[in-house]
Design a protein that fits this description.
Layout lengths: L14 H12 L2 H13 L3 H29 L3 H12 L7 H33 L7 H12 L2 H19 L2 H31 L2 H9 L8 H14 L6 H6 L8 H28 L11 H12 L4 H35 L3 H22 L13 H28 L2 H7 L5 H32 L1
Helix pairs in contact: 1-8, 1-12, 1-14, 2-10, 2-12, 3-4, 3-9, 3-10, 3-12, 3-16, 3-18, 4-5, 5-7, 5-14, 5-15, 5-16, 6-13, 7-14, 7-15, 8-12, 8-14, 9-12, 10-18, 13-14, 14-15, 15-16, 16-18
Length: 457
């Protein structure tokens, strides 16, 4: 049945629509939230250089492999992987790769919607003037008030998931395509406006010096592993999103060149976000660039609240974060919806509400992890911490590792030759080298160290 449904979901109207979609999937809270504080805690410039190298050596090759499988299958990641395994004559257990990615994506969506809800809440907090002139203690209390209110968190979580459903329900061309063609240019415009503000009102010179000064002494081996992990996770690898979007990619689009453009845009957003955030941080006494996860929801509101016109710019910043989260979340919803349509022969509308409903219910555990379930822990994990750990440290690295091994050693050569048409032999050989040797080793290292850190820290 799956083979009969090949191509049932449609295709992107152009290569650039795919680029916008894949960039939207890649650009998310990892760029706006995680990259700045991880770079800050690892010395800045040297970390950024290692991060960019890892994007090229790990992120781009694996992303190309996912798109290759998706475009060949023209179905959901589960069925595209099934077909690639079948055509290649590989052991049927390799079909589990599609399942691992899609299930991981659904679990991530469940708690991602909760975190994205924080950004939506902060748009109103900034706009209301409530954060004008606040200090660190007041900002921390405001954030704690949000986390301690389950009703408020559920309301934002529900709204965010409904925004995602509103896009994915329209299908590839009328929903996802139109959304990314609108959201991504808007995101880049807002990013540039905030960059102008950072140049005019922040300490832009200090931010540039911090992000681009090369100080090897500030970078440890732990920082190198952080850079490898950030490069892997920032491109939405291993969670089914890129494979699903690849299924809708035009056949005449060059996979290598297209993915390089996506990687460039994703890296540019992360670096520009870092410049914006650190310009504001360095212009505000008492705030450190290595402030950690609280940098966005505690430190930055203090900085915005103390600047002329800062609250308006702060509201704009959280609109930007929300758009980035929205563009990523729809790419997590689509693979599950596509599979349910194929497997159960139901409409896209019904499939959307079923999957979003499952994500909503699963997300309630994450909501309660910050309040009424905060004291309930298993092996040191809250429900939220456990989902974050099992997806980021177990499922995604395993999914990415298996994809590299399958494409590197088992996939039928005809599939590679067909999907990589138009790519030079030199580039193909370089890609094969990285997908066979470099990327698997690096991902395995990230996986091992990620698990080791969790259980030894």
């Amino acid at each position: 049945m799956a083979l009969q449904k090949k191509g049932m979901h449609g295709a992107w109207t152009s290569r650039w629509t795919f680029i916008m979609a894949a960039t939207g999937s890649a650009v998310g809270l990892g760029n706006m939230w995680k990259f700045p504080y991880v770079a800050g805690s690892n010395g800045g410039g040297a970390f950024v250089l290692i991060y960019l190298a890892c994007i090229l050596l790990i992120g781009v090759p694996v992303m190309m492999a996912e798109v290759l499988i998706g475009r060949h299958g023209r179905q959901s990641p589960i069925n595209s992987m099934n077909e690639a395994v079948h055509v290649s004559g590989a052991d049927l257990r390799w079909r589990s790769v599609g399942w691992i990615g899609v299930v991981a994506g659904l679990l991530i969506l469940s708690f991602y919607a909760v975190i994205a809800g924080w950004a939506l809440d902060y748009i109103l907090l900034m706009s209301s003037g409530e954060l004008q002139g606040i200090n660190g203690a007041t900002a921390s209390a405001a954030f704690d008030n949000l986390l301690s209110n389950p009703g408020r968190l559920i309301a934002w979580q529900t709204l965010f998931l409904m925004l995602c459903v509103g896009v994915v329900i329209g299908g590839v061309k009328k929903g996802l395509g139109i959304a990314v063609e609108t959201l991504m240019p808007l995101l880049f415009l807002m990013l540039l406006l905030l960059l102008v503000f950072a140049v005019l009102k922040g300490n832009f010179a200090a931010a540039v010096g911090f992000l681009f000064s090369f100080d090897l002494d500030a970078l440890t081996w732990r920082g190198v592993l952080e850079a490898m992990g950030q490069a892997f996770f920032t491109l939405s690898i291993g969670m089914g999103a890129i494979m699903a979007y690849g299924a809708y990619m035009p056949q005449d689009a060059n996979i290598g060149k297209t993915i390089l453009i996506v990687a460039f845009f994703d890296s540019a957003v992360a670096i520009i976000s870092g410049l914006i955030i650190f310009s504001i941080v360095f212009a505000t006494p008492g705030i450190e660039p290595s402030a950690g996860p609280g940098l966005m929801f505690i430190s930055l509101p203090v900085a915005f609240g103390g600047m002329p016109g800062g609250l308006l710019i702060g509201a704009l910043f959280f609109v930007l974060v929300s758009i980035a989260a929205w563009s990523s979340a729809i790419s997590l919803l689509e693979p599950c919806v596509a599979w349910l349509m194929e497997a159960k022969n139901i409409s896209r509308v019904k499939a959307n509400f079923i999957i979003a409903g499952v994500a909503w219910v699963l997300g309630l555990g994450s909501v309660f992890s910050f309040n009424i379930w905060a004291d309930y822990k298993f092996a040191g994990f809250t429900y939220f911490d456990f989902l974050d750990f099992i997806t980021a440290n177990i499922m995604l690295p395993i999914s990415g590792l298996l994809i590299t091994l399958f494409v590197g050693y088992l996939i039928k050569r005809d599939i590679i030759d067909t999907e990589m048409q138009g790519t030079s032999e030199r580039i193909i050989r370089l890609w094969e080298l990285t997908i066979k040797y470099i990327a698997p080793f690096a991902i395995a290292l990230v996986f091992i160290m990620g698990v080791y850190d969790k259980f030894t820290s």
